[in-house]
Amino acid sequence: MFFHGTSKVNNQNHLEIGGVDTIELAKKYGTPLYVYDVALIRQRARQFKETFAEEGVEAQVAYASKAFSSLAMFQLVNEEGLSLDVVSAGELYTALLAGFPKERIHFHGNNKSYEELEYAIKEKIGCIVVDNFHEIALLEELSKKHSWKVPVLLRVTPGIEAHTHDYILTGQEDSKFGFDLKNGQGDKAVAHAFHSPYLDLLGIHCHIGSQIFEVTGFVMATRKLFEKIASWKDELSFVPRVLNLGGGFGIRYTSEDTPLPPSQYVREMVTEIKSQAEKLTIEIPEIWIEPGRSLVGDAGTTLYTVGSRKHIPNVRDYVAVDGGMSDNIRPALYEAKYEAALANRMNAPHEEKVSIAGKCCESGDMLLWDIELPKVESSDILAVFCTGAYGYAMASNYNRMLKPAVVFVENGEAQLVIKRETFEDLVRNEVGLKSKV
Ligand SMILES: Cc1ncc(COP(=O)(O)O)c(C=O)c1O
Ligand SMILES: N[C@@H](CCCC[NH3+])C(=O)O
Prior knowledge:
Layout: E1 8-9, E2 15-17, E3 20-21, H1 22-29, E4 33-37, H2 38-55, E5 59-64, H3 71-79, E6 83-86, H4 89-97, E7 105-107, H5 114-122, E8 127-130, H6 133-146, E9 150-157, E10 179-180, H7 185-195, E11 199-205, H8 216-236, E12 242-244, H9 262-279, E13 286-289, H10 293-296, E14 300-312, E15 316-321, H11 330-334, E16 340-342, E17 352-357, E18 366-373, E19 381-385, E20 405-410, E21 413-418, H12 423-427
Parallel strand pairs: 4-20, 5-6, 5-13, 6-7, 7-8, 8-9, 9-10, 9-11, 11-12, 12-13, 15-17
Antiparallel strand pairs: 1-2, 2-3, 4-14, 14-15, 14-19, 16-19, 17-18, 20-21
């Protein structure tokens, strides 16, 4: 079994995370329960920052908050001195409520509304990552209205196809995101933004996809960007002060995954940027990255309670847990794979192969297929590892399931940071039909 961060087996043969017994957590807070290893998140954040510092370049590491957004997470990210990437007014609202410094917030999205942009501009956040010409027009209108030159990055698609799941690819030409570099939209957007009295063009952004194991894609994207920077320098005298290469650094969910250490992605990126900047005789731009998954993914573990079983002779054994696609849609959506263990009997020998089913009314609601476990019994606590990114964040109330609670654990202490939803929460916004009497 592979242990992430502070996870280990304690002397009761239970899974322990952050010095806290997960079986005690399950008893106290119920299941399904998301448990986050705070020390591991801090360690990842520091690794990214320290690598940039060692490379001697100006940098910002912005946590891509879509991976897991909550007040506590934003407070933690702020404690670690990271910046924050938000993609909606809702994420921005949560960040501001968490007291996140406005100047370190970057606003992304391919369809930001007038109201969302106005919200960001009134708050004077650090920068808006502009995705399309419609947004440029909205920003110019808002800049006039609020007499503020809006700091922007332009998101471009460099035409790089990273090797990952089709649904999470973003840097290829046929993408809903950004200005395309190949067909000239990128040039047009840069020329416009650079000359606009309403926009302060800080630089360029690109993001080539998610759960990427090779550094080649990032290096290729950097080269493509620098080819363009060379022409923008000659034709417009525009040289970006900031180069944001997005996120996408892969993590280990199962033994099939072979990620590089976070520092290696950063080092190779920086080396390429330094050499390209030197060739063009320009200053090394400030380098920004936006890791989401690689900051929180392996820091999250979900605890479930085992309920029913179904044995199909010569076919399969289904073991059902008290959550499923409503708290983790990734297996159903991307055929994502995870590892799991019985948190209450960690060292028990593996005796059977079972498939873990969720409890939603959907055949596709399966969390894991054919995993080796000790003989699983009702009331066992199943721990699914590496669920910290795009798990809780993509949870839903399908089948009127309640969103789970979330606890942060660190140095032997547990802190409830998101309460489990209640039935009242489910109907909070409902008004029902008007009475006919
Ligand atoms: C623009 C942008 N930045 C950052 C991220 C974070 O990606 P990851 O969680 O893979 O690091 C994403 C998601 O893929 C994204 O779309
Ligand atoms: N939600 C995706 C990643 C999305 C990346 C967002 N740009 C996942 O779980 O892998």
